[in-house]
Specification:
mainly alpha, 9 helices, about 75% helix, UreH-like_TM_dom
Length: about 230
């Protein structure tokens, strides 16, 4: 599987989660101009704002990852990323929390930014950008994958395709005010931890370089793009 397809799949799965978690925020942003065309444009711009943030995160992660790759620590990063993903999946499967509460001081700047953005004429774009930086398990999962690409351009591309994966359902949901019912979201959310578990185990095996074709080839630390 190519890195772009993997990132898109993570985004697509994550979008179902996002509709339940971030959907109310997207629904609440008012359109300052009347008319169906302006509504569609505003909601689409909101999605673009999120993707811009994801690409920026990809840039930051790429800068870190490139230095790690140059230092020869790619195997360790792959294993460490896999362990974190397995821990996140296990917390959802076995109902325990690694971090029970997000510190209020961390979220305070976001609240202030939202209050400002709601009154701005570019409110959908600004809030979309802010939304992309909010703490989210699926964004962390995507960032772990981007870190393992090994260079800046691949990391940005990875996060771009993650954002594109979240776009279809989120865009349709913001227009239709939540077309996916709670039952469907619950069913898909049950599958997500198993997907995360498989992905985490794959990262661990890649870092171990056990000379297993496709799963753990020798020299896998050269980047995710080498394993298709």
């Amino acid at each position: 599987m190519s890195t772009e397809r993997l990132a898109f799949m993570i985004g697509l799965l994550g979008s179902v989660h996002c509709i339940g978690m971030c959907g109310p925020l997207a629904f609440a942003v008012p359109s300052l101009k009347q008319g169906w065309a302006f509504l569609v444009l505003d909601k689409f711009v909101y999605q673009l704002g999120r993707i811009v943030s994801y690409c920026f995160l990809g840039l930051m992660i790429g800068l870190i990852g490139e230095q790690i790759w140059m230092a020869g620590f790619q195997q360790g990063v792959s294993i460490f990323s896999g362990i974190l993903i397995v821990m996140a999946a296990s917390s959802r499967l076995f109902k325990f929390q690694v971090f029970k509460n997000t510190p209020s001081f961390f979220l305070k700047p976001f609240h202030k930014a939202f209050n400002y953005a709601l009154k701005h004429k570019a409110n959908h774009l600004i809030i979309g950008i802010i939304n992309g930086f909010l703490p989210c398990g699926f964004v962390y999962l995507a960032m772990a994958g981007a870190l393992n690409t090994g260079n800046i351009s691949s990391s940005v591309t990875y996060m771009f395709w993650f954002g594109m994966g979240t776009l279809p359902l989120m865009f349709i949901a913001t227009l239709s005010m939540g077309f996916t019912g709670a039952l469907l979201r619950r069913r898909i959310n049950r599958v997500v931890p198993y997907f995360m578990l498989c992905l985490g185990i794959w990262f661990i095996f890649r870092g171990l370089e056990l000379n297993i074709p496709y799963l753990s080839p020798a020299g896998a630390g050269q980047g995710v793009a080498d394993c298709r």
